[in-house]
Amino acid sequence: MGLITHHMAYVRPRSVEEAADALSSRPDSARVLAGGQSLIPLMKLELSQPELLVDIAGIAELDDVRDRPDGTIEIGAMVRHARLQSDPTIRRRLPLLSEVAGLVADPQIRTLGTLGGSLAHADPAGDYCMLALALDAQILTNRREIPATDFFLGPFTTPLDAGEMVLGVRLPASDDEHAFVKITRLPFDSGVPAVVVQRLDGVWRIGLTNLGHGHARARAVEAALAAGATPGEAVEHGWTDIEEITDQPVPLTYRVHMARVLTRRALDRAESRGRTSP
Ligand SMILES: Cc1cc2nc3c(=O)[nH]c(=O)nc-3n(C[C@H](O)[C@H](O)[C@H](O)COP(=O)(O)OP(=O)(O)OC[C@H]3O[C@@H](n4cnc5c(N)ncnc54)[C@H](O)[C@@H]3O)c2cc1C
């Protein structure tokens, strides 16, 4: 990968307002710099050439985890993968999120990469995007709250406007049965789905990467489980409701097959954990 040769300005604001002003000053060519783990490689490849980098690492309020009395947790955009993996509140209140964070990339990327950057980047292989979709998370920006179903519009596509930035995410807390399954022997962009399953208020939620608009809910499988099907029966229920718009290197038939296999595996793992926990 090459050097970054184009000229750009760089600012490191101390508040959300300063950051938003900087972004609005160059609506077409300013970019947020969070952990830099996706943006810097894109800049080296000359696939992204921002004229202004707005480095939000100095905004303390974005590095916060809040356990809220209404049964949700709010996590700031600058909370990094390593903290998501180890933070005691997250491990206790939403252990699935810690489990997902623990399998993101490698220790170097987990030390630098952030939750907000992952959501805003909306890579079809991005693990937090499917988790946000499965749990009906709200994406919090400096202008509005966006339900996850309206946020992930397609591969690398979100409704964020110029001058708008992700401040954090609000997720329902749950330590009920859950599991995360992905094939870690393959590279990040292998195109094979990963899956999260979480029981929430007695109902299974299932999210997948690399399917549909980039990420997908397996709603037919969820409905079959709610109607009393076993995991083995439920995963045979339609994947056809997942509208496929991605242009993926891996054939759809293979991805759907892997989605079925990995979802079954995740449900079995979650249920067996539920039987063994005190
Ligand atoms: C080799 C490799 C392996 C990886 N493996 C995985 C994996 O297994 N699972 C996984 O989920 N991810 C994986 N990733 C991606 C990694 O998680 C990145 O950290 C993440 O995609 C981007 O986070 P970041 O903080 O580094 O964002 P940056 O690189 O700083 O930014 C990414 C994009 O999001 C925008 N952005 C960042 N923050 C905000 C914000 N708060 N508001 C608005 N826009 C914002 C930036 O302008 C940029 O366009 C991998 C990346 C690499 C390079």
Task: Compose a concise summary of this entry.
The chain is of the alpha+beta class. The protein has helices spanning 16-25, 39-44, 81-86, 88-93, 95-102, 107-112, 115-121, 127-134, 148-151, 219-226, 231-234, 252-276, and strands spanning 9-11, 30-33, 52-55, 65-67, 72-76, 138-141, 145-147, 166-172, 178-181, 195-200, 203-211, 214-217. Strand 2, helix 2 and strand 3 (52-55) form a beta-alpha-beta unit.
Overall description:
- The structure is a single chain.
- By secondary structure, the protein is α+β, with helices and mostly antiparallel strands.
- 35% of the residues lie in helices and 20% in strands.
- It contains twelve helices and twelve strands.
- The strands form three sheets. Strands 4-5-8-6-7 form a five-stranded antiparallel beta sheet. Strands 9-10-11-12 form a four-stranded antiparallel beta sheet, with helices on both faces.
- The longest helix has 25 residues.
- The chain is globular.
- The termini are far apart.
- The relative contact order is 0.12.
- The model has no long low-confidence stretch (mean pLDDT 93).
- The site of flavin-adenine dinucleotide (FAD) has 30 residues, from strand 2, helix 2, helix 7 and helix 8.
